[in-house]
Amino acid sequence: MTGQTVAAADPYWNRYYNAEFEFGMGTEDVLAALSELPPVRRWCDLGAGSESLLWSIPLTADHLIAVDVDLDRLAILSRYAAQGQPRPAYTTVLRMCHRTAEDFTRRCRSLAGTLVADCLDGPPLALAPGSTDLVTQFGLLGLAETPEHFLDAWRRAHVPLAPGGWCAGANWVPEPSRQTGRVTLTQGLYRRAFADAGIHPHLLHRVASVDPQFPSLWLYTGRKQ
């Protein structure tokens, strides 16, 4: 995996998802977009890290497969799912999404498995084409290095998506000093990616963030034709 996230597994978890919820960083916009998606049976979260259960709160999905190249992040996710108890940031999100602690426990039980795979540069995912009703990624594709890299990773990421299935995601845009080695994300690049994968965009816009390291993000949803 060529790109780098903000920090290693434990510091990243504690900074962004284990402490109090931080408003204004774009997370509220992502949650609102996810809440508009219909219930699905099979959900695959690519580049899942340790955060899939946060995104699960506004969703209704029976089975979640979390995919990531980082074993430590997947281990954090699995341990948290086994505990089944929301921590501070998650408790705030539950209130925002009008969900209860019991709802969160059910979300934890939906984690059907984890898959270790490099979603940016590895071989095709070990998921059958058309086997998934929802494909998400939060932060993953923004780690691509060039437009061609982004488009290739996008195509491979959505091979498991069934006709009529949904995709959703967000990619945070770093401030200029952090941009080196990352693709420049544009509306045109996203629209080309949607077209290449046969996906109709339902939502695509750029959202401001108060995070000085990542002052904006691209947010999208779409449905495979």
TrEMBL record:
A biological process term (GO) from this entry: methylation
SUPFAM superfamilies listed in its UniProt record: S-adenosyl-L-methionine-dependent methyltransferases (SSF53335)
Entry keyword annotation includes Methyltransferase: yes
InterPro entries: SAM-dependent_MTases_sf
Gene3D superfamilies for this protein: Vaccinia Virus protein VP39
Annotated keywords: Methyltransferase, Transferase
Domain of life the protein comes from: Bacteria
Name of the featured protein: Class I SAM-dependent methyltransferase
Organism name: Micromonospora humidisoli
Lineage: Bacteria, Bacillati, Actinomycetota, Actinomycetes, Micromonosporales
